[in-house]
Write a structure and sequence with these properties.
Layout lengths: L5 H32 L6 H21 L4 H28 L8 H22 L4 E2 L19 H23 L1 H11 L1 H6 L4 H27 L1 E2 L3 H16 L4 H21 L5 H15 L14
Antiparallel strand pairs: 1-2
Length: about 300
């Protein structure tokens, strides 16, 4: 194949955008939680994995009973979002809330422990083998002329991701809950003084981030066609990298960093070698941290002593 063919370039472009969209759905959870409580939820990747497994179980059962493909996709997505959100809420209650006033290292270690626990919990429940995941997105007839470049699943991932990000932006900017999130992120003590229930806001933030990760888990699992207990760790590390790249704590930064990372991986894989995919991604992160430690859209903060 000629690497300089326009079709090949477009194929790599959409592959990168698809990766970036999935990274963004996960990275938004990282950056929202960090913006609210100033800590990284290292169990967030496992929430993504649990959402994918929930979608697999639900879609398998519904297919046995002969449900149409669209109904399976919608019901699997709803189940994944609800179940993953419940896990996100539980993690916040068990791993973070009791340590709210503890030294910063304590909740970090707690989150890592929760991540390891969830990995092994799913490992025991589902085995370490890769499990086949059904293709929940049909091949659209109008996509046939460009099917060799862009698949129907790629299109659905991009469209759903963009819609979800728009809805998240509207929620944060225009709803009472979103305003409470922004107030809590800016100053928790002042938010308490004006009557905002900070504990509820933090719980809602974890639930929202978990729901986004579950949608990403369903979409990428349907695209790849298989899952196992370890996919959350890899995707979580990449999404965390994207969040730091864009500026941890910045929602637009998380989206921008995710698409930059996805495109970098795609073009590095296509034009150099798939062996260097992770090398290019993390090299990009190192360069950003050296020359712009706050990230592309992050703001440097000065602590007064």
């Amino acid at each position: 194949m000629d690497f300089f063919e326009p079709d090949y370039f477009i194929e790599l472009l959409f592959s990168g955008l698809t990766k970036g969209a999935i990274y963004a759905l996960i990275a938004l959870g990282y950056t929202m939680v960090y913006g609210i409580i100033g800590l990284i939820n290292f169990a967030h990747g496992e929430i993504y994995m649990i959402g994918a497994f929930t979608a697999l179980i639900v879609s398998t059962v519904l297919s046995i009973y002969g449900f149409p493909l669209l109904a399976i996709f919608i019901l699997a997505a709803v189940a994944a979002v609800v179940w993953a959100s419940a896990y996100g809420y539980t993690i916040e209650r068990l791993a973070y809330r009791p340590l709210r006033n503890a030294p910063r290292l304590s909740p970090l270690i707690s989150a890592i422990g929760m991540s390891i626990f969830l990995q092994n919990y799913v490992l025991l429940a589902q085995t370490s083998d890769f499990q086949p995941f059904p293709a929940l997105v049909p091949d659209f007839a109008f996509m046939e002329p460009v099917a060799h470049i862009v698949g129907s699943t790629d299109l659905v991932i991009l469209v759903v991701s963009v819609i979800v990000m728009i809805l998240l932006t509207v929620m944060i900017k225009f709803t009472r809950t979103g305003k409470a999130m922004r107030a809590t992120a800016q100053d928790k003590k002042m938010a308490l003084l004006v009557g905002i229930n900070v504990d509820n806001v933090i719980s809602i933030t974890f639930i929202t981030g978990s729901a986004l990760a579950a949608i990403g888990g369903l979409l990428i699992a349907s695209h790849v066609g298989q899952i196992n207990f370890y996919i959350g760790f890899i995707a979580g590390i990449k999404a965390f990298t994207a969040a730091v790249l864009g500026g941890i704590g910045s929602i637009p930064g998380a989206v921008l960093g995710s698409f930059i990372l996805g495109l970098t991986e795609s073009f590095a894989t296509g034009y150099v070698s798939s062996d260097y995919e992770d090398v290019f991604a993390f090299s990009l992160l190192v360069l950003i941290l050296i020359f712009r430690p706050a990230g592309l859209l992050g703001k440097s903060t000065i602590e007064k002593v």
